[in-house]
Amino acid sequence: MLLVHCPYCDETLPELEFTYGGEAHIARPENPADKTDDEWRDFLFIRTNVKGPHFERWRHAHGCGRFFNAVRDTVSDRFLTTYKADAPRPDLAVLLADASMKEPSK
Amino acid sequence: MTAHVDLNMARTLAKSSAVSVELLPLVARFSLRAGTSEQAALSKALGLALPTKIGQCARKNKLEVLCLGPDEWSILAPEDQAVKITDACEAIYAKAPHSLTEVSDREIAVQITGVKATDLMTIGCPRDLDLLPVGEARRTIFDGVSAVLWRDGADEYRLDLWRSFAPHVISLLETGCTELAAE
């Protein structure tokens, strides 16, 4: 089982309390009516499908109920960080450097 | 199969040498949602400071307030105090908008006590219970069901369960109660 750190509860908790919420940092268009069908399709359905560190949303459904963002490696399932939904997107290079300092073997 | 359980009558549901499971009497329950700027006014209206850290509880005059999320609280009170709470919050609604919903009928409470109470909790709760301090509570999951788990003492727990899920959880607790005694 994964252990997920909830930035609102500030506790590291079992995955069972959480639900996955898809890719993070996808901004809804200001005016959807201006978009072509293809652009709207891309907004709704087309995701980056990263192999490696992935910015994604999680929800602490059986807990504080909050959505938050996480960076998880889709190959190893390792969480590099989690942060509040209104926090800026962290710098991936810094996160990777921190992760290799902590556990260089991974 | 889950058997029918009468949830309206407080009584001992299961008891063994290891642990005892009791259905507690009904209490008035409220769900309170409010922003940061309204918290001071609501604390004054309720007569106790709303806890701001998730999982912390405030208690005063049989009133129990638990912080469930950054803007969410659960209020438990004796049934005869329900009107007092709604009136006090309604009086300040104009200057401190909030949402106070009575959810008394939604949940029932089960108390688990005994030397193996923590062992019984671990059959349904994936959390590390050593990290749950006495006097605090958390909303968590218990055998697939969302529940509020209170730690009232080292070997004393309370589970707030949604009424419709309660027979499922109670039957699991009854089985666990017997099995822990047989160990």
Offer a concise description of the structure:
Chain B: Pfam families: SoxG. Chain A has helices spanning 37-45, 92-102; strands spanning 3-6, 11-14, 19-23, 53-59, 67-73, 79-84.
Description:
The complex is a heterodimer of chains A (106) and B (183). Chain A is α+β, with helices and mostly antiparallel strands. Chain A has one domain: Folate-binding superfamily (Folate-binding fold, 2-Layer Sandwich). Chain A is built from two helices and six strands; from the N terminus they run βββαβββα. A four-stranded antiparallel beta sheet of chain A has the order 3-4-5-6, with helices on one face. A two-stranded antiparallel sheet of chain A has the order 1-2. In chain A, a hairpin with a 5-residue loop joins strand 5 and strand 6. Chain A starts with a strand and ends with a helix. With 183 residues, chain B is an alpha+beta fold. Chain B has two domains: 94 residues, 2-Layer Sandwich (Gyrase A, domain 2), CATH 3.30.1360; 75 residues, Alpha-Beta Plaits (2-Layer Sandwich). Chain B starts with 10 loop residues before the first strand and ends with a helix. At the A-B interface, strand 2 of A face strand 9 of B. Chain B: It comes from Thalassospira lohafexi. Chain B: Pfam families: SoxG.
Strand and helix map with partners:
The complex is a heterodimer of chains A (106) and B (183).
Chain A: E1 3-6, E2 11-14, E3 19-23, H1 37-45, E4 53-59, E5 67-73, E6 79-84, H2 92-102
Antiparallel strand pairs in A: 1-2, 3-4, 4-5, 5-6
Chain B: E1 11-15, E2 20-23, E3 28-33, H1 39-46, E4 57-60, E5 63-69, E6 72-77, H2 82-91, E7 99-102, E8 107-113, H3 117-122, E9 137-142, E10 145-153, E11 156-162, H4 166-182
Antiparallel strand pairs in B: 1-2, 2-8, 3-6, 3-7, 4-5, 5-6, 8-11, 9-10, 10-11
Q: Can you tell me the overall shape of chain B?
A: elongated
Biggest interface and residues each: A-B, 15 and 14 residues
Helicity level of chain B, as a percent range?
A: 10-25%
User: In angstroms, what is the radius of gyration of chain A?
Assistant: 15 Å
Our measurement of the CA-to-CA distance between the termini of chain A, rounded to an integer number of angstroms, reads 18 Å
Structural class assignment of chain A: alpha+beta
**Average pLDDT of chain B:** 94
What is the CATH architecture annotation of chain A? 2-Layer Sandwich
The CATH superfamily title of the largest domain in chain B: Probable tRNA modification gtpase trme, domain 1
Contiguous low-pLDDT stretches of chain A (5 residues minimum) are none
- CATH architectural group of the largest domain in chain B: 2-Layer Sandwich
Strand order of the largest sheet of chain B: 1-2-8-11-10-9
Q: Quick check: average pLDDT of chain A?
A: 93
Give the class-level CATH name of the largest domain in chain B.
Alpha Beta
The general outline of chain A is globular
* Number of strand elements of chain B: 11
Pfam family, one (chain B): SoxG
Protein name (chain B): Sarcosine oxidase subunit gamma
Pfam families (chain A): SoxD
InterPro entries (chain A): SoxD, SoxD_sf
